[in-house]
Every structure is written in C-alpha cells, then in structure tokens.
Amino acid sequence: MSFADQSIAHFDTTTQTMRWLQGTGLGLAAALLIGLGLWIRRSVWSDVRGEPLVAARAACNVAQGNLSFSIPLLSGDQRSIVAALKEMQTRLAALVDRAGTTMTEMVRSIRNVTDTMAEINASSRGQASGFAQVGGAMTQMDQANELVQIVAI
C-alpha cells in the first residue's frame, strides 16, 4: 500500500471519527439543553406553584381592577406568586369596600351640611325681615316723636 493510499485511508477514518464525535457532541448538547429547560420549568413552576398562565391572568385582572375573579390555589400554598396575588386581591377588595363605605358616609355628611346651610340661609332671611320691621318701627317712632315735639311747642 502506497503512502497516498495510507493517507486517504487515514483521512477517511479520521473523518468518520470526527463525524461520530460531532454527532455525539450534538446529541449531548441537545440532551443537556432539554434537561436544563426542564429544570428551569420546574424551578419556575415551584415558585409560581401552578401554571404560569394562571399567574399572568391573575396579575392582569388585578392590574385592571377586576377583583371578582377566582384565583385557584393549591392546598397549603402560602408562599407562591399565585398565593401573593390571591392575598393582593383580597386586600384590594377590602380596601375598595372600605373606600365605598367612606364615600357613602361622606355623601351623607355633605347632605347634612347642605341641609344645615339651607336652615341657616332661611334663618338669615327671617332675621333680615325682622331687622326691616324693627327699622320701620323705629322710623314710625321717630315720626311720632317729631309730632309730639311739634304739638308740645
């Protein structure tokens, strides 16, 4: 066998070995990426404690002010993102209820103030009328006094 034939045979063997190593490397890389993806998914799901889409929907509903929807929780879940969203929803609903009660009380108080102002206004008109009558009576007394002084002279 000549040197050229040996070189070609060695090149073919080396090429096959490199292709096998390349395929094996790609297979290992794919397996590692799949394993890493599953590990990341599991890590995220353990923090969320459920479907991330459920957490996303819950966050959108809370952000839009919709506090009447139900957020499903796994039993015993108190530290996950979904549990935090549920707690936020509950507290916001309580604040909204309290704000509604406060607004109702404010409207009632404003009506009371308006009624009191109307009573004061009516009383002021009555006083103004009374002052006008007193002023008229004083004018009549002055006129009567003048007549008495004229007659007395």
3D structure, described in words:
With 153 residues, the chain is mainly α. The protein is 85% helix and 0% strand. The protein has helices at 3-48, 52-63, 81-152. Helix 2 (52-63) runs parallel beside helix 3. The protein is rod-shaped, with a radius of gyration of 47 Å. It starts with a helix and ends with a helix. The mean pLDDT is 85.
Give a topology summary.
Elements: H1 3-48, H2 52-63, H3 81-152
Helix pairs in contact: 2-3
Total beta-strand segments: 0
Structural class: mainly alpha
Beta-strand residue fraction: under 5%
Dominant shape? rod-shaped
Largest sheet: none
* Number of separate helices: 3
Rg is: 47 Å
Outline the low-pLDDT stretches.
Answer: none
Mean pLDDT score: 85
Q: What is the distance, rounded to the nearest whole angstrom, between the alpha carbons of the first and last residues? A: 171 Å
What string gives the helices and strands in order?
A: HHH
Q: Helical residue percent?
A: over 70%
